[in-house]
């Protein structure tokens, strides 16, 4: 079995205050799939993603990456395979300079200096942030921080890329850059997003969460054509599928 496979089996998560964020979530994502996880605010999307890299532990249920169950023992191995980009870049940037942040992961893999420098340069160039290499992260704009946060994960060369709201805070140009980057990333991609046009453009498959449960899992276009499902889960069609607000004609 490929180590790129992500398998979630009957995962429940209850926060210490008693909030049940996930209620029996199950799905299987195979090598090379590009999968969006969508839902209204509070549906459990971010909670679910944080389980894929071991930042949260299920109250019950099982998570496997390939043949490897996610446990405290296997966590270092799994985090080398699954790269996680958080919704808030400040959660990921903590070093004095952008270079130091992007180099942190490769150095911790024990890579030699020249290889680390090559990875840092390549990752920053891929997100259009090469000119930021010597800047302190706290001097960056929100969009610049987002791009650098993505670079910190790309520098680790993950087999599975997990991203929470990757386009939030990006201007239109940076959004297009990111979409091109994700399109060219040939391994497994899993992300949450309220940017449903991005979902439509990048994901063949979409999973809909509602109140911590999987309400639908199927081809993205089928999901967005299901008006009843979207209404029940407090979602709307991507803008590109909506009718013109002026002339009333369909997309």
Estimate the global geometry from the Cα principal axes: globular
What is the chain-wise order of helices and strands? EEEHEEHEHHHEHEHEEHH
Q: Give the oligomer, counting copies of the same chain as homo and different chains as hetero.
A: single chain
How many individual helices?
A: 9
What is the CATH superfamily classification? P-loop containing nucleotide triphosphate hydrolases
The CATH architecture is: 3-Layer(aba) Sandwich
- The level of helicity is 25-40%
Number of domain modules? 1
Count the strands? 10
CATH top level? Alpha Beta
Biggest sheet, spatial arrangement of strands? 6-7-8-3-9-10
Distance between the termini: 42 Å
Give the amount of beta strand, in percent: 15-25%
CATH fold category name: Rossmann fold
Mean pLDDT: 90
List the helices and strands and how they pair.
Blueprint: E1 6-14, E2 20-29, E3 34-38, H1 45-52, E4 60-65, E5 68-69, H2 75-81, E6 82-85, H3 98-108, H4 113-126, H5 142-154, E7 160-164, H6 172-184, E8 188-192, H7 196-202, E9 205-210, E10 213-219, H8 220-225, H9 227-232
Offer a quick outline of the entry.
By secondary structure, the protein is α/β, with parallel strands linked by helices. It is built from 9 helices and 10 strands.
